[in-house]
Specification:
407 residues, alpha/beta, Molybdenum Cofactor Biosythetic Enzyme, Chain A, Molybdopterin biosynthesis moea protein, domain 2, Molybdopterin biosynthesis moeA protein, domain 3, six-stranded mixed sheet, 19% helix, binds adenosine monophosphate, binds magnesium ion
Length: 407
């Protein structure tokens, strides 16, 4: 393929087309919040109650009226309020209340002084500072007000969200059903784990990578195994997946060689949208539809599988799951060595990102062949070199995408 082919799409253009083709799947289910981490809300959630529900203390100390809050004042300790054990009495002028963090502040008090700022003797305390009026008081609804929408439809639930729901007494949520993702790998050279390799054979690693990558997402996956390089075998796998899945992923067989039945059948019996993206690694990539499924045909080389997964499959999955994928987070890092590249394709080189003397630095993992899966295993970030660049020099600032934001 020609590096300067003007018909090649940029990564951004290709992603736009992928996202345009992926609509959130229909259907939802109710789940206990204990099973809802990473799932996507099918509708908004509204707060039922004020949190906190009552005025309470942010500190261990003494509750008092602001009119008594002067350094040097000596107050009688009239009672005690602990979390879960409110005090039922009323404070008169000259009185205060022993109070612990999270305990209800009575109506007759509006200020809390920290215990470190009083001198305590039997039944009395003397204030050593002047706490500002209203100090260390948490007001009802300061966290969440009843009636406000606390989580929107399309929200992918985080640990904080699960806690927030629990704080509202909400134990169950309605989430989008998991999209069905069917996948298979292709290649007559592929041997399953557990069988010895014959001449020219390799173990099928892509399918295991895909399973591992997919297991991070709220999807139901259908592993169709290794498919031989014959038209009939590829057709029946495509047909089955096209009838069953919302999204279909394949690896290998998308070039223009005579054993590349995936791209050929997609063109003749499905719909092909694009299959040239100006990126490295990751070409060729086929995209379209087969049957009812959105189709992404990933390259065969293991590094290309991961690169195209992170840049295209992940956003497609999140879209199908009913949420809006964030753009990958990038940061600028100081490059520790020279890197060469040819113009024409954006490079996603595998890098090791680390802080040195308070600065982010990045260096290459070494060999960048798309068959060198160890480069992915060692790396923790992509070094992004733009399409037209010819490389970067040691000391340059380069754009880096941490893997944590794309896998
Ligand atoms: P292909 O696109 O089918 O020509 O494959 C490109 C390269 O990736 C070849 O060297 C294949 O042997 C290799 N490859 C294809 N599928 C897999 C797989 N499932 N696991 C590991 N390597 C693969
Ligand atoms: Mg092949």
């Amino acid at each position: 393929m020609d590096e300067t082919d003007p018909n090649m799409l940029t990564v951004e253009q290709a992603l736009e087309r992928v996202l345009a083709a992926c609509a959130p799947v229909a259907g939802s289910e109710a789940l206990p919040i204990t099973d809802a981490l990473d799932r996507v809300l099918a509708g908004p959630v509204t707060a039922r109650i004020d949190v906190p529900s009552s005025r309470n203390s942010a500190m261990d100390g003494y509750a008092l009226a602001a009119s008594d809050a002067r350094a040097g004042t000596r107050l009688r300790v009239a009672g005690r309020s602990a979390a879960g054990h409110p005090w039922e009495g009323h404070l008169d002028p000259g009185e205060c209340l022993r109070i612990l963090t999270g305990a209800v502040v009575p109506e007759s008090a509006d200020t809390v002084i920290m215990q470190e700022q009083v001198r305590a003797e039997a039944g009395f305390v003397t204030l050593e500072t002047n706490p500002g009026a209203g100090a260390h008081i948490r007001n009802p609804g300061e966290d969440t007000r009843a009636g406000t929408v606390i989580l929107d439809r399309g929200r992918r639930l985080t640990a904080a969200d699960i806690g927030l729901l629990a704080s509202q007494g909400i134990g169950e949520v309605t989430v989008v059903r998991p999209p069905k993702v069917a996948f298979f790998t292709t290649g007559d050279e592929l041997v399953p784990i557990g069988q010895p390799l014959g001449p020219g054979q390799i173990h099928d690693s892509n399918r295991y990578t895909l399973r591992a990558l997919l297991s991070r997402y709220p999807v139901e996956f259908i592993d169709l195994g290794v498919i031989a390089d014959t038209e009939g075998a590829v057709r029946s796998a495509l047909t089955y997946a096209g009838e069953t899945a919302d999204l279909m992923l394949t690896t290998g067989g998308v070039s223009v060689g005579d054993a590349d039945f995936v791209s050929r059948l997609l063109q003749s019996e499905g719909e092909t949208d694009f299959w040239k993206v100006a990126m490295k690694p990751g070409r060729p990539l086929a995209f379209g539809r087969f049957g009812q499924a959105v189709f992404l045909g990933l390259p065969g080389n293991p590094v290309s599988v991961m690169a195209t997964f992170s840049l295209f499959v992940r956003p497609a999955l999140l879209r199908l799951c009913g949420t809006v994928p964030e753009r990958p987070w990038t940061l600028r890092a100081r490059l520790l060595q020279d890197l060469r590249k040819n113009p024409g394709r954006a490079d996603f080189q595998r890098g090791i990102l680390e802080q040195r003397d308070g600065e982010w630095t990045v260096r290459s993992t070494g060999g960048q062949g798309s068959h060198q899966l160890r480069s992915m295993s060692i790396a923790n970030a992509y070094i992004v070199l733009p399409r037209e660049s010819t490389g970067a020099a040691a000391g340059d600032e380069v754009e880096v995408i941490p893997f944590q934001s794309v896998f």
